[in-house]
Amino acid sequence: MDDVTHHRRARRGLEAVHDGPTLAAPPAGPRIAVALGSGGARGLAHILVLEALDELGVRPVAVAGASIGALFGSAYAAGMPAKDIRLLTISLLRDRGEMMRHLLGARVGRITDLFGSLGNPILIDAEKLIGGILPDVVPETFEELPIPLQIVATDYWERGERVFQQGPLRPAVAASIAIPGLSRPVAHDGHVLVDGGAVNPLPFDLLRARADIVLAVDVTGGPVGETKAVPKAFEAMFGTLQIMAASIVGEKLKSAAPEILIRPNVDAFRVLDFFRATAILKACEPVKDEVKRHLEMVMG
Fold first, then answer.
1. Cβ count within 10 A of residue 118
2. Which of 55, 117, 153, 181 lies 20 to 30 Å from 110 when distance is taken between CA atoms?
3. Smallest Cα–Cα separation from 271: which of 211, 204, 181?
């Protein structure tokens, strides 16, 4: 099978093996909810956590996500098995040419923006981007999801958190992944919205009333390597966003930590290391056993 055919099958949600939500019924025991955090390419580790849930036959009663966590959370809440999410992700990122076509097709800036203005010639329209990469199994509205989902975005003008859990789904996902400097802000529901990681990079607090056990996945990570070199401008911008996110998560954990906190081994990877997907998944593979140990303890 060539890469184009492989990608098309994955893009459709692998209809040949997955015609709709097939997650197992929730087992007897505590209600478990899952929070998936922000972290760019580091968030690929979320796939492994979701695979562990599937392998244990655990169906969360609710999911909350910010930024990359909102992207993977929307596919999982739609009933897409984690192994299919992995296949789709690897398919998208393995073919760099196809992925670059998605990015160029979603570009809103122009090269002429470099001259006589403060425009960004590589700015991405997040709504166009997710329109090309979200699998078709993801419905149009929150209400159609088999698993309740909450998505966090940042309200730019009101300077605060905005949570979406009803109405159109794709604009909310687009808003949550709209990283400043990389994506254009998203106008949705009467608000101007940017990356959810700016205000709530690990939204486990949204799930407390919905579950007995909240499992939160923190992929903010630490510094990349031991170098003391001055970072390039683009790297400094995204690195600073991650420092801010990690600080927010740290303060949240001081006041009220989730019952299970998972921190995959993502420190060696940068926010935009999406084309290192295979390496990220390999480095984070041990997190599956960690998740299973925690869940088996609480489930008895």
1. 6
2. 153
3. 181
Torsional sign, CA 66, 69, 71, 73 = negative
The band of 188, judged by pLDDT with boundaries at 50, 70 and 90, is very high
- On whether the CB atoms of residues 206 and 161 are closer than 8 A, the answer is no
**Residues designated catalytic:** 67, 195
CB 178 within 8 Å of CB 194: yes
- H-helix or E-strand spanning residue 108: none
Lowest mean pLDDT among 11-15, 151-155, 239-243, 246-250: 11-15
The letter for the amino acid at 82 is: A
Phi, psi for residue 116 in degrees, rounded to 5? 75, 10
**Among 130, 128, 79, 72, residue whose Cα is nearest residue 277:** 72
If DSSP codes are grouped into helix, strand and coil, which group holds residue 103?
Answer: helix
Entry pTM: 0.86
**Distance (Å, whole) CA 253 – CA 133:** 33
pLDDT number for residue 20: 43
In order of 72, 130, 248, 298, the CA distances from 50 in angstroms are 9, 20, 24, 17
Instruction: Output the CA angle 131-266-47, nearest 5 degrees.
Output: 45
AA letter at 163: V
Q: CA-based Rg of the chain, rounded to a whole angstrom? A: 18
Rounded Cα gap, residues 76 and 66, in angstroms: 14
